[in-house]
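Incident log, structure service

09:12 report received: a user says their structure output differs between two submissions of the same chain.
09:20 pulled the input from the user's history:
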Amino acid sequence: MKNIAVLVLAAGKSSRMNSIKQLEKVNHKTLLEHTLEKIQRIYASTIFCVLGANADKIKSEVSTRNVQFIENTNFEDGLSSSIISGIQHFKQNNFNFEAIFILLADQPAIDVAYIEDMLHLFEQHKDKIIASNYGEKLGVPAIFPKKYFSDIFLIKGDKGAKEFINKKKNEIICSTIPTNFLDIDTREDLQRYKNSILK
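09:34 re-ran on a clean worker, output below:
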């Protein structure tokens, strides 16, 4: 598992939240810290996190250790630009990962067991994309083997990764463990997440 780059995407402006979403506090920790620390429970290597809007403020307020921040100056171009900036960073630093595991900072409710299962599936099927099943569509979190990196460079926009995954359905394996894919975009979403962890 050591040779997988975990890339957490946290570059958005959170325009629907009217605040810096990544820094919203839940149980005295920011949303971004919740996501990063959840991954760290099962993944000991350095985690990479892509920032864009409010990058300096987020860096100064997130105290999670063993996280390397990558700045995406093109974050206005959508999620795919963050994935591309991550892969560019790996190339520039001659990091030779066999896969990239993409997660979203605004999905902190995903269970540790689900993340763990995705990593196990990749260990067993290293030539396949391990993606998440949303019912009618597939999406992230997803693990992309190295052979797909050059294709990922060509994706565009906010839904780029999702479209890419859904065109490759025959090359994909999904975890069957149920989890909470709640995507926090609004105050109502944030309240739902708070309610889910206070149960």
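09:41 both user submissions now match this output. Likely a transient worker issue. Closing.
09:42 reviewer note: Strands lie at 4-10, 25-26, 29-30, 47-51, 67-71, 99-104, 129-133, 138-145, 172-174. The mean pLDDT is 90.
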